[in-house]
Amino acid sequence: MKAVLSLVFAAALVNAGVGGVVSxxxxxxxxxxxxxxxYLSDNRVIILYPGGGxxxxxDKLPANFLESxxxxxxxxxxxxxxxxxxxxxNLDRAIQQGSFRKVHGVVYDTRKAxxxxxxxxxxxVYQIVSEGALIDSTPNDDYxxxxxxxxxxxxxIGDQDYITFVALPDGTYSYVNKLGDxxxxxxxxxxxxxxxxxxxxxxxxxxxxxxxxxxxxxxxxDVVAKLPxxxxxxxxxxxxxxxxxxxxxTNDHVVRNAQRVKLKIGNDVLPAxxxxxxxxxxxxxxxxxxxxxxxxxxxxxxxxxxxxFTIGFPDxxxxxxxxxxxxxxxxxxxxxxxxxxxxQVSVPVQPGNSGxxxxxxxxxxxxxxxxxxxxxxxxxxxxxxxxNVNYAIKGSVLRDFLSQSPExxxxxxxxxxxxxxxxxxxxxxxxxxx
Length: 434
Fold this sequence. Notes:
434 residues, Thrombin, subunit H, disordered N terminus, alpha+beta, 3 domains
């Protein structure tokens, strides 16, 4: 018995190392030995060893390891309190400096990268107007200017100032220049600074980069958080069934590099398999198990001026998951730079509409929504913002894509315009990509 006790005691001494500290550690499947220093910094434990170091949160480390290095519960609590106090001071400073900005009922933490927001560095203010300021967005170009309009810049700026700011695209702005010419340019909103009570708790605590204004009365429901696997959700798009047994069409760029894909159909969320992709045509064929309403793909090409519409799911994080209807006409029988594989349409679309059906008044598919004309590119090219210039892949391209999958029992064309909108509504789904 004495021999056994002696061996156990010797092993403990080896593990403890010099000075009674534990010098070896297993962490996240890795082994660390000859640990020379361990200390707390901002609620993380810094661990140094010959040739390098690592870190971990307190809850990931054994209590005896921490205590051997003098990091007991009292010290942990003190560091945690000091860190919380510092974070509160930083938050107060950020609020005072106007880092939290509200635009159209949504509060954004501009310290974090925000999708859609743009940064303008060292741009020149060339005219203050009552609603905002006209800015030369290309001040380093001595030969041309690219004017934009910006709302809610600080009232301390003046003509000829050079400023840096971030702002969210916000439609267009029309004005008459000094030559008497009417101009329409891209508009941006830098947002209004928020008072602390206006900032949603989810944004204050850093859980979200933006959320609905706390005092606006808008429901603060996090639509995306309610979706299965929301933490892993990468992108969403639109699409539609082309057969009753679950074959489904969307854009290739929506599901490209997806690890998993699901379809939200009404209140149901179903797994889907990517059957085939065509990057050139920007089409993808998916398959879900079940029985579904499906749309017939028209055997005829669309005509110039033909009335068309789509139902899709733009920007679900802000607009929600209810289907959105927009309509318009076929504006051209060719796409960008006379691309023969696309139509130009006046149907308003936004990010998230990609993959949705372009249908005629009978609810038959005439194309697949694919893109909208980039406002900045158009502004640089024409000096003005186009209105409702969007694109759809032609039905002929879709028919060719589907013909390569003879196993699809395509839905028949619809013969009447009665209840066409309801038919399309039941045939579309949100594409959730993980």
